[in-house]
Structures are given as structure tokens and as C-alpha cells.
Amino acid sequence: MPNPMRAGEAKAVSGAAAARVHSVPRWTWLPAPGTWKYHALLLALGIFVLGPIGGLTAAYMNFSIGFFVGGQVLAGLLGSTVTYGYGAEGKHGANYIQTAAASVAGISAMGVLVQAMVWMGLPQPPTWQLVLYMLAIGMFGAGVGMLYTPILVDRMQLVFPSGLAVANILRALTDPVLLRRSIGLLGGGVATGLAGGIASAKIAALAAIDLSASTFGAGMVVGARIGLAAVTGGVLSVAFAPYFVSIGWLSAGDPPRKIMFLIALGTIMGAAAIDLLVIFGQVWRRYRSTSAQPATGAPEAGWKRVNTVRLVAWTAFWGAAIVVTGHAVLGQPISYLLVAVALVFVFAMVNGISVGISDSNPISSAFVVSVVVMASVGLRDPAVGLMAGMVLLVSTSVACDMQQDRSTGWRLGTNRVIQFRYQTAGILVGALLAVGFAKLFMAAYPVLKLDQTVMSAAQQPGQWNAAMTFKFVGILRSLTDDKPYQRTAIWIGVAIGLAIELARKILRSRPAYRRFTAGSRAGFATDFVLDTVVLPSPYALSFGGFVNLHTSLWLGAGGAIASALESRKKSQAAPGDATEVPQDMTGTSLFGGGLIAGDALAALGLGLVALGGLVIGT
Description:
Shape: globular
Number of helices: 24
Distance between the termini: 63 Å
Number of strands: 0
Helix content: over 70%
């Protein structure tokens, strides 16, 4: 595995960062670095401005699609417009901002758990109880993530692709030309997404084709190989629906995803089993190679030091707070809360390794698997399963986000303790917004309260797929409404995922195949078809089973157009003229991220207008 630190980077980080000299800001209105005014400015920008924007976007994506794009790049870009005034050292301030803002955004996306309660007809606890519970879970996840940082980031030196991309972005944005270009693309996407979101709600012709600027934008971010693989999954779902009706797995008129989501879950599990074997093999080899290196005897850099005793105490306190809050405030059984807290230590490591190598954090799978594990030891109450599964969902999301951010700080030499403080501040605000955004969206759009797992295909809302909620409710309902064919569907998916992922890895391990794909257009085309139709990534393929077909089509369209534009741009670039930028900073990726944010703002604005009209009318 390639070392994520470039030649000489380690020396630059440990030397220049450790002996950092705070220069006078080039803009006189900026407070001096390191002062309380400096941190107050950055924190306010992160948790009160950029964080809520990212949180709104993440919450909207989870309600409309069922997954969300992290807010690190958005926050890093916009934060750099302020920290640019600090010159090269501004990268640390921008890193603090994106750490807090991404933390707010990640927690805000968890409002789908409230939607799951509504779908299942469960009584909703008072808002303050949900916020308190989610806050305890988030703080616990931050502690666990920080405990694993020395292992995953420092010792194993996993790549953490998004962490690397954000580090490169923050370093690059000291260039005013690149900063203006990036902000311009992002702003153009926001404006287009805003216009598209309003138009799709007001123009019947656009509503008829289920135009979704956010789904199209998500496709531009993930690219054609993922987007078109999702289309393949959606087409297969529709194609097999008549067969599932004939064998009694679906009723006439049911949406295909009512059974396909179980097969899709199994597909992910099967592929993950292969990937985990490969990942743990790579980790073991890396661990052995780093263990064999002689100790340098050099003292640990100051920016990297943490107080381990305090960190362990922090984690123990918030772990106990989950159990106390869950039992004393929410009335959940202690036994299952303890099981959930213990499982966090397993999934934070497994998912952290997955994020560190593949940039994939299967948080919904952590929820589903945890429910299955607890069911094996006697769990039968869906309400308990939801509350206990929430521990896994939120903690795993926060812990892996913690490791991702620490990998960025590791490359920049950013003070680790200060970064931790920014993250916990973001968790506090995010816990409030998660419940607030959930209640706001469901009040503004009552369709979000309707249980899609019992709706026919014709009744499925076009804009609001809520795939993550669909998965949660489906697996929780199996606790009380056990149907043997549902387990069969999951095992079929496991077999499919195992077979596809094994075939992909065997094929791509062949030197002859790699030479063929890299050496000609025919090879590239062959690999592209295999990657999108014949042997698509099981993770991307499964997405087509979680959502309705039109959502997969918009995702695929965005990916195809973005990949075509990027390929055309590279082919037209003169040798030596192309400027290498991280994937997150390509023009199509930035524009796509703006589309998502703009569409979210449009949905929020239209919802608030409609909600305001109802209030005035009453």
C-alpha cells in the first residue's frame, strides 16, 4: 500500500508544524492566531454558519436519497475564504473550521432516526430527551474515534482518501486564483440547484420526470462507475419484480425495493466479507512492517500529543451516560444498551479501517448488523432495537469522521487536542439540529411521515426515497413480523455479493488484465462495461435496490455527464498544462456538491413557505 505521505512531507509536518511561527495576518481585521478571539471566530463560523449549511444538505440528502456526502470539502472551501488571510498557516484554521462544521453536518443527517419512529408508529420522546441521548452517543463516538487514532492514523498510516483530499485542498487554497475558481464553481452549483429545486416543484413537466438536482449532483460527485452501476441495480430490481410477485415475495403493485432492499443488504454484507479479509491482510502486513522499523527515539511532536488518561475517562463517562440516559430517561433495557456500547468498539475499528482504505463508511450496515446480533440474543421489541441501533449508527459515524479529520490534521500538523475540542462543539450543535431538521422537514413535507414500506409502487413519493429509513424500518419490522423468505433474500444477496466481489478481485489481480485496460481504448471500454454492467461494485449495485428506479437514473445521469466532461477536459489539456487537483476539487465534483446544497436550500425554503401558509391559515 502506498504511503499517503509524500517524500519529505513527514519532515515538513514534524518540523515546520511543531515549530510553527504565527505571522501577523495579512488582513488587519483578523484576530491574531492562537488567541481566544481567533478560536471564537473559527468556531462560530464552523458551528453556526457552515455547519448548519452542511447539516441541512446532509439531512435533505438522507430524506430524499438515503445517503449523504460529507461536508468537509464544502466547509474547507468556504472556511478558507476567511483563513486565506493568515497565509500558509491558514490551513490549520480552515482545518479547525471544517472539523467543527463536518461534525455538525454528520450528526444532523441522523434525523432519519426520528422519521423511522414516525413510520413505525412509535411514541416520540420529548425533544430534549432525544437531543440528550444523541449528544451522549456523539460524545462517546468521538472518544472512541480518538482512542483508535494512534492505531489507524499514526501506526498503520491508512490512506483515508477524503482526509488526504481535504489536506491537499487546504494547502492548495492558499492560492487566490484556485480559491476563486473553486468558490465560483461551488456557487454556480448552488445557484443552479436552487433554481432546479424550485422549478421541479412548480413546473408540472419537470415534476413528471421526477427532476432531482440533488441526486444528479450526487452522481456528479461519485462519478459514472458508481452512478451507472446503481442504474444497473435499479433496472434489475424492476426486471425481477414480476418473478418475485409470482413466488409470493411481493404483492401486485408493490415497489420492487420492498424485497430488493433485503437482497441489497445481503449483497453489501457478502462484498464486505471479502473486503474485510483483504483489508485485515493489508493491515497485518503494514503492522508487521512498521513494527519491524527501529524506533527513532525522537520525542512525539507537540501537535500530536493527547492526555490518554483523560481520553479514557471521557470515553467511559459518555459510555455510561448512554446507558443512564437510555434507561433512566428513555426507559430502554440496560442489557441491550450495554451490548450496543460494546459493539461500538468493534464497528468503530472495522468501519474505521474501511474508511481508511476505501473511503466507505457503511454506517447503515452497522445499524442493521447490530439489530441482527441483538435479535440473536433475544431482542424482539422494534422500539428497543431502534434506540440501541441508534448507538451504533451515530457513534460509528462520529468515530470514523474523527479518524478522517485526524488524518487531515496528521498531514498538516494541526494540533490534535484543539481539533478534538472543535469536533465536540460540532457534536453539541449537531445533536440539536438533527432533531430540529427532522421535525422541520416532516412538518413542512407531511409525505415524509408516510411509511413507504407499506406503500404500493404508485404511491411511492418521487422526491423522497428515504432509503436509509426504509432499511431501518424494514429490518426492525422483521423482529415482530418474521417471514422466512426475508432471510432467504438476505442470503441470496450475500451469495451475490461474495461472487461478484471475488470475481472482481481475481480479475483485477491479473497483470495481463491490468495491462490490457491501461494500454488501449478497447481495454478502458471493456473495464468500464465490466465495472458498470457485468461485474459492478456490489456497494454501488445495491443502491439500486434501496431506491426507486428514477432515483438511480438521475444518479447515473449525473455520474455519466461528469465523467464525460472530465475525460474530455483531460484529453484536450496540453502536456504540462494540466494542474493536478484532488478528486474533490474537480470542476464537476464542486459543481455537483453545489447542486446538492442548492436543492436542499430550495426544499427548505419551499417547505417553510408552505408551513408558514398553513400556520397563517389556522
